[in-house]
């Protein structure tokens, strides 16, 4: 996220990006590109969205519950399956436990069908009543599939038009590359928690202890006292950060970057639009503490209470979160609509900044297949005219 990629993205870069982040959150909203595709675009630039789907089908990545529903590297699947029992407080696991208790016969019948006939989709099963939205309005087979997925009895073998195709876990695990490591499923809880802590710090780059647990939804919260042994062992680096008042932590893998940063030599040049579900911003406390950026994913907020819009994309500019925009991609007309554009109150727009932001918007729109960009409103209002000119 610091610099623009120098080379055109390749298929292997998709898996490599997920390996660096350790997970890629899945969300189905597609006002713009669906979140996982947009997160990858912010890091890779132009790439083919089909590469993510192919990586899943080929077993290079897998779906599991992690931060939320996520794609994770194939090498980590056993670790997430081992941690599954520690997620019993999550809504999906609570519902799965209830399904297992109350409707196990139906779940077993569904497993038997899959064993005999192969993978299934929720849409393979019909229902007569429409119902309201939510878990309990779903047709029984969909609830059973979700419960079996949360329990690890089925997995997603591939997606078609982003719809999950489920299969028995043993079949999906058999195609993982690298191969599924059964021994990792029995790793002890202390070692497993330490593993996720170290992965989180590596993925975040630099962090406070209080921001670590959210990444993999660890419980209880991570503390400085818990991290002290990892620092003593050299598995983490403890650093002082101006203005924090608490220790910062860096993974040793980033030692060279830390040295460059301490000398003022680490320069951010990338400008990109971020998904609302990007790991850079999904933790509101970290977004505020790291960037002074107050952010709420407002698609889940009633319209009357929204401050910025339905699907608001944060704007990363040279290491700062400088603004946000409410966007909608009109695929039928090829138009990328920026309903409202906002700069942060303390950000002073420069010609170079507006040029970079316009280029990032145009890049995203072009990649998305909606190259005609229309800007409707901007705050402050004086940036609207130069932005429109640049976007033309």
UniProtKB/TrEMBL annotation:
It comes from Dyella soli. It comes from the Bacteria. This is Winged helix-turn-helix domain-containing protein.
């Amino acid at each position: 996220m610091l610099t623009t990629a120098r080379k055109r993205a390749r298929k292997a870069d998709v898996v490599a990006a997920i390996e660096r982040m350790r997970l890629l959150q899945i969300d189905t909203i597609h006002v713009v590109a669906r979140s996982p595709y947009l997160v990858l675009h912010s890091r890779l630039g132009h790439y083919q969205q089909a590469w993510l789907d192919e990586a899943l089908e080929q077993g290079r990545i897998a779906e599991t519950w992690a931060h939320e529903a996520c794609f994770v590297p194939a090498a980590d699947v056993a670790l997430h399956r081992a941690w599954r029992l520690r997620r019993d407080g999550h809504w999906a696991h609570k519902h799965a436990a209830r399904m297992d208790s109350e409707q196990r016969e139906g779940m077993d019948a569904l497993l038997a069908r899959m064993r005999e006939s192969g993978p299934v989709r929720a849409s393979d099963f019909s229902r007569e009543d429409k119902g309201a939205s939510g878990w309990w309005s779903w047709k029984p087979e969909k609830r059973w599939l979700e419960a079996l997925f949360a329990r690890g009895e089925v997995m997603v073998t591939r997606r078609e038009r982003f719809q999950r195709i489920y299969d028995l876990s043993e079949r999906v695990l058999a195609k993982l590359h690298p191969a599924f490591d059964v021994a990792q499923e029995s790793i002890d809880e202390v070692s497993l928690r330490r593993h996720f802590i170290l992965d989180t710090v590596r993925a975040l780059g630099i962090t406070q202890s209080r921001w670590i647990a959210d990444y993999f939804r660890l419980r209880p919260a991570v503390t400085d006292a818990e991290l002290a042994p990892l620092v003593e062992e050299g598995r983490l680096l403890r650093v002082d950060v101006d203005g924090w008042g608490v220790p910062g932590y860096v993974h040793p893998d980033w030692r060279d970057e830390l040295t460059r940063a301490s000398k003022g030599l680490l320069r951010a040049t990338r400008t990109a639009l971020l998904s609302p579900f990007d790991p850079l911003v999904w933790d509101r406390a970290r977004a505020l503490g790291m960037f002074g950026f107050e952010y709420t994913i407002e698609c889940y907020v009633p319209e009357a209470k929204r401050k910025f819009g339905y699907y608001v994309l944060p704007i990363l500019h040279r290491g700062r979160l400088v603004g946000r925009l409410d966007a909608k991609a009109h695929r039928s007309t090829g138009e990328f609509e920026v309903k409202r554009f906002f700069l942060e109150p303390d950000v002073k727009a420069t010609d170079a900044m507006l040029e970079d932001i316009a280029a990032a918007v145009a890049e995203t729109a072009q990649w998305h297949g909606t190259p005609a960009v229309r800007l409707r409103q901007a705050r402050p209002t004086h940036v609207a005219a130069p932005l429109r000119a640049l976007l033309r």
